[in-house]
Amino acid sequence: MTWSHVDNKWPTDGLSFGADYNPEQWDRSVWREDMKLMLEAGVNLVSLGIFSWGLLEVADGEYDWTWFDEIVDLLEENGIAIDLATPTAAPPGWLLHAHPEMLVVDHDGVKHWPGARLGWCPSSPVFREHSLRIVRALADRYGARDHVVMWHVSNELGGGNGHCYCDVSAAAFRRWLRDKYTSLDALNAAWNSAFWGHTYRDFEHVLPPRGNDSKNPSLVLDFDRFSSDELLQQYLAERTVLKEIAPGLPVTTNFMVGAEQDAVDYPRWSPYMDILANDHYTRSSDPLPQQDVAFSGDRMRALTTDRRPWMLLEHSTSAVNWQPRNRAKRAGEAVRNSLSHVAHGADGILFFQWRASRGGAEQFHSAMVPHAGRDTVVFAAVKELGAHLRALAPVQGSRVRQARAAILFDDEAGWAVQKGVKPNNELSYGRPLRDWHRALWERNIGVDVVSPWDDFSGYDTLIAANLFVVSDQNAARIAHFAESGGTLIVTPNSGIVDTDNQVRLGGYPGAFREVLGAWSEEIHPLQVDERFTLDTGWTGTDWTEHVHADSADVLARYVGGSLDGAPAVTSRTFPSGGRAIYVSAGLDSGSVAALARSVVPSIGEPDLPGDVEMLVRESDTEAFTFFINHGSADVSVPGTGVEMLTDTDIVDFLDVPGGTVRVLRRPRT
Ligand code: GAL
Q1: What is the pTM of this model?
Q2: Which of 164, 438, 442, 450 is the most exposed place for a label (fewest CB within 10 A)?
Q3: pLDDT digits (tens, 9 = 90+) for 79-110
Q4: How far apart are CA 669 and CA 654, in angstroms?
Q5: Which of 352, 357, 362, 364 to mutate to test the pocket of ligand 1 (most atoms within 8 A of CB)?
Q6: Is 33 assigned a catalytic role?
Q7: Of the residues 156, 333, 412, 643, which is catalytic?
Q8: Which domains occur in the chain, in start order?
Q9: Which of 57, 238, 314, 412 is catalytic?
Q10: How remote is the C-alpha of 344 from its chain's centroid?
């Protein structure tokens, strides 16, 4: 069971199934029961040791490997593979006590107390030294073990230490700026720092954006970039040690890819991951959690250029514990979500965590084995899922079929949208992206959520929503997409600034004005209780603009209000047949769906009954069609082949009972 970059072998035979395993909380008799239950459920991979630093290095340079040796042996005896974690997410108490300078300082200058995890400053040299020492010790001891099949670096980097504003970070930020700009003149120009007389005379005068006093959006965006880079340096430093000791093992870290930007710029990190891995949790307040699952999968898949399968390292069997009110999952929901991740390209499904804790910070978080034990709905669902994943083994390595549409996602744009003073300071970055995704996802139109620097060939539709920051080069590539025959849809707040976070002059949206054949002279944000209506009947909130349609047709105009009669949605057509559509107003999701129906017509996507989502994964020789019935009614869908979860031959029609998933296997035609 070894992995090699050459043959790209997946770390487990078939799909991976398991959890974060934190046995240190339990005595040996529980470990033995764990093994029994893991085998009963079909678990074949666990993430081990994620937060164990304090139990492995019990004092400075003093190690206790006995319990870890034992658990590694036990897993090995039971044939369960190990995704071995570097335990650097949680530094031990003795280290924090000896070096409190490594603790994160927040933007108000408050130093965080020990007591949680990821409380270390990413730029701290003391942390770097100690963390690499434990990584080396761990890799030396376990890197050659047969059942250690991959490395899990730290945990959700950026989750607790996305930004640190301490003096060490300030000095590191200044070094980063010197590298980026070389001269102060270049920095001053990029930051337009002459405004308020803030021109810098010495790099030493530059500070992180501490408190609420630092309002220069260019500085703030650079600090966000720097912060992501500092965390990446920690990841790369750990990866270098691991590769030196165990070059054949894949290295990854668990991302938190969802529909909003994160502290970490994942697309810029993904080239350094041997296997892409994600943690995804649905929110109790989300009216459509299944679409959030789809969105994150559509984003994960597109983080590699060859759309490689990825691994879901964490999600929950039922309720989480970190929301005001934590909804327990409904019957079938965890299995359906898991199989939906597989349909979207995941080749591994793991949970946080194996056994629910009795005490500690996450004692009321669900797990594969709940507090109530084995004879429970949750554990029955875990076993059912294990059986399904075994049945789906042939799917491993196949790729999700080429999507028709692409939605652009960029963390930098998200950072810039959310920070700095704006015409409307209450907009989320991800909301419009999710609305456009939903409009296509509901019609089973395949979508990839891609980066602005990706290759757009293969798509017929490209959506730039809230793409506030865009480089000249990427703007030109996006424009070329429409000019050469694609349908480009640009929504409000896109192309407004350059990569220095400075406004592109001459009318919004500067980067796309020319390709759209339309421009806006002023943004008219709406108040919380204001709404607008268009002559097509479409409605919306939050955002309107005074648009001029120079060389574009008007698809919809305002009715009433200060922009009465002015264009709200325009479309320019090119001789190639391509179109550039400007949606300059904040349409409601229903209106987005209506507009999408007219500008992105279906081309043979099946019109399935009820709430059935369909995705196809393909290998060289076979096609695997997933039907995910999110509704409660039983439905019948057209299809022929072998249904893999029930092992049934299907001719013409397949029944998909309410709330279940069915997968048809057939040769590729
Ligand atoms: C994740 C984290 C896990 C666990 C989980 C609970 O963010 O990586 O360790 O805390 O949340 O939902």
Answers
A1: 0.97
A2: 442
A3: 999 999 999 999 999 999 999 999 999 999 99
A4: 19
A5: 352
A6: no
A7: 156
A8: 16-163+227-396 (3.20.20.80), 405-599 (3.40.50.880), 612-667 (2.60.40.1180)
A9: 314
A10: 13
